[in-house]
Design brief:
The protein is α/β, with parallel strands linked by helices. The chain contains nine helices and 16 strands. This is Amidohydrolase.
Length: about 400
């Protein structure tokens, strides 16, 4: 009943829902600046008779259906855009210079908004037996993600489990990628400052060579980590910035190095900072340079719960028996992981490639999402609600 209603509702309201997406895409706002986006979402939800609850700054949540002992099923959509210049040439291209929905958050938001409005209309026909919560989260794209604030603001109170989708431009529209266990990686940032007295390159023995020390760290640390950490955990250290020196015959007094540490293993993530610090000390000890290490903890990996992932697979197969594919494990970070530290849940990959032409990538100014992915996403979420309702009835 729920899935069929949501599907029919979307087919009737498709033009309206797509217009929401185009409005959001045309008016992107970066992390913690999503004021007008929040206002727009509130306005649409209230037009459908719902009562959204705003977060202290930006973002909001809305509940549909009753509070029950089992708890609500929640859906999360991220609403922020990126500081990226759009070059798609779409008729609804970004009107804000240098800001674009280059990660598909406009699509995530539209899907969640469509679900909430469809369920609001369903409630007027037949009251839901379960509670649903839709969370519109700000600031997914910044360190360490807006999810931590949203959780602190009580968004998970009374929640049984939580679900989300992320568009995948490498996957054909209509396909839904699911994966139990880690689907993204923990992402930390490391910064290393090296210092020494400097000197002339003709007399290196009278100085401490920060350039040589920098090279030792760059080449030795990734290899040492691969011998100290199980390679099956997907633990990868990559440096992206190295700065030092000003002349070919002068030994500089300082050097700077930064990079990312990623792992798909939550146990490794909780221990990696200590190991990394130990290895840095050991590599630099023979060089005589001084160093200061700053290790920035990021987000843990998204660890999809087995039962919740099975529910996602069943929901996808209910709308299309051919929809489900195995999602690859990504080395990217996602702050949806913070929710899964509190309650079970799962994130799926939502195909958004048309099947023709170039496959664009996330965080790029030429990203084009096939809008048929919105159809799939709304109907998929409706099916998740129905699957959750059935599972709760089976338990009671």
């Amino acid at each position: 009943m729920i899935s069929a209603f949501v599907s029919e509702w979307f087919d009737t309201h498709r033009a309206e829902v797509v217009s929401w997406r185009r409005h959001i895409h045309r008016n992107p706002e970066t992390s913690n600046q999503e004021v007008e986006t929040t206002n727009f979402l509130c306005r649409v939800l209230e037009e459908y008779g719902l009562h959204p609850r705003r977060f202290p700054e930006t973002g909001l949540l809305v509940d549909i259906g009753p509070d029950t002992e089992q708890g609500r099923v929640a859906f999360r959509a991220d609403i922020d855009a990126l500081p990226v210049i759009e070059v798609t040439g779409l008729e609804f291209t970004s009107e804000k210079p240098g800001v674009m929905h280059a990660c598909g958050h406009d699509v995530h938001t539209t899907i969640a908004l469509g679900l909430a409005c469809a369920l609001a209309d369903l409630e007027r026909v037949q009251p839901l037996e379960i509670g649903v919560r839709v969370i519109f989260q700000p600031a997914e794209e910044v360190w360490v993600g807006g999810a931590t604030d949203v959780i602190e603001w009580g968004a998970l109170e009374g929640v049984h489990s939580i679900y989300a989708v992320h568009v995948e431009p490498k996957l054909r529209v209509g396909r839904i990628g699911v994966r139990a266990g880690a689907i993204t990686s923990a992402t930390d940032v490391v910064e290393l400052n090296l210092t020494g007295p400097g000197g002339h390159t003709s007399r290196p023995h009278l100085s401490s060579d920060v350039v040589y020390a920098l090279g030792k760290v760059i080449t030795d640390l990734p290899g040492l980590l691969s011998r100290r950490v199980d390679p099956r955990t997907g633990t990868v250290l990559v440096f992206g910035q190295a700065n030092t020196g000003y002349a070919p015959n002068a030994m500089p007094e300082s050097a700077y190095l930064s990079g990312t540490m990623r792992t798909a293993d939550i146990a490794i993530w909780r221990e990696i900072q200590t190991l990394f610090s130990e290895l840095v000390d050991q590599v630099l000890a023979p060089t005589g340079v001084q160093h200061e290490l700053t290790y920035h903890r990021g987000v843990p990996p998204v660890l999809n719960d087995d039962v919740a992932t099975a529910l996602l697979a069943s929901a996808a197969q209910a709308i299309d028996p051919q929809a489900v594919v195995q999602a690859p494990q990504s080395s990217g970070g996602e702050d949806f992981s913070w929710y899964l530290e509190q309650v079970p849940g799962s994130m799926a990959r939502l195909g958004c490639w048309s099947g023709e032409g170039e496959q664009h990538d996330l965080h790029m100014g030429d990203l084009v999402v096939d809008e048929r992915a919105i159809d799939v996403g709304v109907k998929f979420f409706g099916s998740v609600v129905e699957q959750f309702s059935g599972s709760q009835q089976a338990e009671s």
